[in-house]
Amino acid sequence: MSSHIMSAFDEELKYLNRRISEMGGLAEQMCADAVHALVNGDSALAQKVISDDVILDNAEREIQEKAIVTIAKRQPMAADLREIIGTLRIAADLERVGDLGKNNAKRVIAVQGTGVPRKLARGLEHLSELALVQLKEVLDVFANRSAQKAEAIRQRDEEIDAMYTSLFRELLTYMMEDPRNITTCTHLLFCAKNIERIGDHATNIAETIYYIATGAQPQGERPKDDSSNTLGAVVE
Amino acid sequence: MNMMTEAAVEKALDQRMNDLSYKMIGKDVSVYYGEKRALFDVNLNVRQNTVTALIGPSGCGKSTFLRTLNRMNDTIDSCRVTGRITLDGDDIYDPAIDVVELRARVGMVFQKPNPFPKSIYENISYGPRIHGLARSKTDMDQIVEASLQRAGLWNEVKDRLQESGTGLSGGQQQRLCIARAIAVSPEVILMDEPCSALDPIATAKVEELIHELRSNYTIVIVTHSMQQAARVSQRTAMFHLGQLVEENDTDKMFTNPDDQRTQDYIMGRFG
Ligand SMILES: Nc1ncnc2c1ncn2[C@@H]1O[C@H](COP(=O)(O)OP(=O)(O)OP(=O)(O)O)[C@@H](O)[C@H]1O
Ligand SMILES: [Mg+2]
């Protein structure tokens, strides 16, 4: 797209974009670190994730303030308006991603007693990889604004949901096998749910990018393959 | 009657209904100033009880188009208009049309305030008097007060109605001209950048007035403020180099316009 006649407006938009990319990078790192800390019982790393969250919160607040000033000052129209509103939404999603990463980090101490069984660790890592790939790709798409790619990412949320459901099933099995696993497994269950929600936020971001690029909401229901809500029936 | 013709009849009826919902229809309107062509085959319809905003860069022909709607271009010697413009289905360029009556039905507020060099009262009462709209002095007083009230000027001038209209400030003069335009109860009101000389409060009053007038009148407004167009209009038409490049619902126009030139213009980008 061509430049604004007021070059300062371009600078403001570029700044917001850069801050979103930074938030995205940090959120991604936090989530990866949290799972790492969890499976390795690394409480120092967990502590770092917890303190990184403050940076992310501040970044969201700063983006919000800057965006509001830009709206008041420039009275943006059309694609510019969509971009700024989109930026606000994406910043909020990334802030939530950070919270979920932090929540996972907080559970490191709780599961340290028993440690995380190898098989479950692998499942969690795999789920986390899927969600992080999703997040990473969506941030790349944010940089190049491809509606087509945003749509493709949105379609892939299904994979994460399916993986989450299978991990959920596995955790239930562990708990039934030995009630002493219940505490750890419950925490891991929350962790898995958190990771699945990180994927949801990545999908939200993909939808926002699609809107910024086209001015339309993506068509059709978001694909869902999370059947964990009916899994109680399986245990019967 | 088979299905096809029935559908065709229905379509023709729909078309007819559509035409009726247009207060004015402009078809292939071109305007020349001497050799210079200022408008190129503009097809733009003005919907009844709707505010239509005309936007576009300076010199693109907004005022020129607006003036064709009540034949204000007749007053410019070099100016020639081709195409067809109708008001309630009647060709306004028909030689049988009484131009004075046309301009009472299609009133205008100009870019620069142009009060008559007469008293404030007479500025308003002139139109209603020549069109025989007041039966008595009380009637006329009422029209003058109501018009000034609606234009948001009454409180500022109620004690000086006999003073000259040209003695008012620029913004007050503009509101006086708006009061003058609505005093004759026109069906269509054309406004050419009516707020360009007004402060934010007076602008808000005029916008509120436009909002109010919309239920009974049809309004076409030229504005350089994208926010104003977005606030007051339901339809927006974008002109560029004498051509109509896009006409759309205002909400769509300012969030996701179809034409690249509209995009660049409203976002303040280099085209
Ligand atoms: N009386 C006139 N004689 C000759 N040319 C004219 C006359 N009025 C307008 N034009 C020309 O016609 C073109 C369209 O002018 P018009 O006044 O309609 O533009 P506009 O869109 O209203 O611009 P602005 O936003 O600056 O008021 C311009 O090139 C202008 O120079
Ligand atoms: Mg003009």
Biggest beta sheet attributes of chain A = none
Largest sheet of chain B: 6 strands, mixed
Count of the domains of chain A: 1
Bound molecules: adenosine-5'-triphosphate, magnesium ion
Broad CATH class of chain B = Alpha Beta
| Separate helix tally of chain B | 11
Textual characterization of the structure:
Chain A: Plays a role in the regulation of phosphate uptake. Chain A: Residues 217-236 are annotated as: Disordered. Chain A: Its main location: cytoplasm. The complex is a heterodimer of chains A (236) and B (271). In chain A, 82% of the residues lie in helices and 0% in strands. Chain A is mostly helical. Chain A has a single domain (2-235), classed as Phosphate transport system protein phou homolog 2, domain 2 (Methane Monooxygenase Hydroxylase, Chain G, domain 1). In chain A, helix 1 runs antiparallel to helix 5, helix 2 packs antiparallel against helix 3 and helix 3 runs antiparallel to helix 8. The longest helix of chain A has 34 residues, at 7-40. Chain A is elongated. Chain B is of the alpha/beta class and 271 residues long. Chain B has one domain: P-loop containing nucleotide triphosphate hydrolases (Rossmann fold), CATH 3.40.50. Chain B has a 6-stranded mixed β-sheet with strand order 6-7-8-3-9-10, with helices on both faces. A 4-stranded antiparallel β-sheet of chain B has the order 2-1-4-5. In chain B, helix 4 (120-130) packs parallel to helix 7 (170-183) and helix 5 (137-150) packs across helix 7 (170-183). Chain B starts with a helix and ends in a 5-residue tail after the last helix. Classes of the chains: A mainly alpha (236), B alpha/beta (271). The interface between A and B is medium-sized, with 18 and 16 residues. The complex binds adenosine-5'-triphosphate and magnesium ion (MG). Magnesium ion (MG) binds at residues 62-63, 111, 192, 222 of chain B. Magnesium ion binds next to helix 2 of chain B.
